[in-house]
């Protein structure tokens, strides 16, 4: 193979490294993070906090109503226990008991609403957890595949790099330097002669230039774009 042809092969290997490295980055990103799963987990945590808060409200309200009932029972015992004889006092106690029972009714209604809210919160938490677990299972099934793909890509890149090192070791230093300098400026740095024109910038070559490209030992460059042209 000509020196220019070797540089073309080097360029092909470099392209494979770039391509596989990009795919490896994608695979690594898929392993590292999962925005949709994170969103669902956040939602489940929020639903859990809301459910806990709702349960706390119910417990507080229950305690409050129980205190009122206790007070009503005591008042009731006192009222009908026979220890209070004063009619004025009895009447006062009756009014207090009545007012207390009305408050208990109101508080009972509020408690019922709080319990319904707690039930809804619990249902939302179950749904959020279910949605998270469902996606986790799908992802777990795919995680193995992604890990395998990443491992295969790493092995492929390693292989390309060894191949490149072997090829580069047999090239002349000036050829390698020319290739490296060109590829930083133009991509691709090495092109084919296409219908007697440059495969990069497409300017037509004179017959003498075509002959030079076909026969020259050293890499021939396009007079228009500087690229290395191989036949
Ligand atoms: Zn050119």
UniProtKB/TrEMBL annotation:
Keywords from the named record: Coiled coil
The keyword Coiled coil is assigned to this record: yes
Annotated Pfam families: CT398_CC
CT398-like coiled coil hairpin domain residues: 10-185
Signal peptide: none
Region (Disordered): 34-62
InterPro entries for the chain: CT398_CC_hairpin (IPR056003)
Domain of life: Bacteria
Coiled coil: 143-173
Entry annotated with the keyword Coiled coil: yes
Protein's name according to its UniProt entry: CT398-like coiled coil hairpin domain-containing protein
Organism whose genome encodes this protein: Candidatus Amunia macphersoniae
